[in-house]
Amino acid sequence: MTSEQKKMLRVQISSETEKVGEAQTQRAQHIDKVLPGWEIIPFARRTDDDDVACWTGSKVVVIDDWDLWPDENGMPIRRVGREYSTMEEWFLAAARDFIEFDWS
């Protein structure tokens, strides 16, 4: 690979990384807006639905940040699709789900 090709590859990778970073930032801002006070950090999402894995500081919760139900005061009800006590537990479940996913 020539030095020019390496340079182009670095530019391409950098550009893709920036896009991913921008998408993560937008998702985090959206979650802060629609779920104020939850103080969760999104770190992974499914591409076949709206599920987002978020870190609470002590565990992983999986939420759908677009399917929100308000309480009587108009605040979103905390609906957690799944909850994992450790990052390892979530990762193993995500890996199993990936292996078992119907790709057809």
Task: Characterize the structure shown.
This protein has helices at residues 3-34, 87-100, and strands spanning 41-45, 51-55, 60-64, 82-84. The chain starts with a helix and ends with a helix. The model has no long low-confidence stretch (mean pLDDT 76). It has a four-stranded antiparallel beta sheet with strand order 1-2-3-4. The chain is an alpha+beta fold.
Keywords summarizing the entry:
about 100 residues; alpha+beta; four-stranded antiparallel beta sheet; globular
Question: What can be said about this structure in brief?
Answer:
The chain is α+β, with helices and mostly antiparallel strands. Helix content is 44%, strand content 17%. The protein has helices at residues 3-34, 87-100; strands at 41-45, 51-55, 60-64, 82-84.
- Going across the major beta sheet, what is the strand order? 1-2-3-4
For the CA atoms, what is the radius of gyration?
Answer: 17 Å
Proportion of helical residues = 40-55%
Which structural class do you get from the secondary structure elements?
alpha+beta
How many strands in all?
4
Helix tally equals 2
Calculate the mean pLDDT score and round it: 76
What percentage of the residues does DSSP assign to strands (E)? 15-25%
Low-confidence stretches: none
Shape, per Cα inertia axes:
globular
Largest sheet: 4 strands, antiparallel
* End-to-end C-alpha gap: 37 Å
Order of helices and strands: HEEEEH
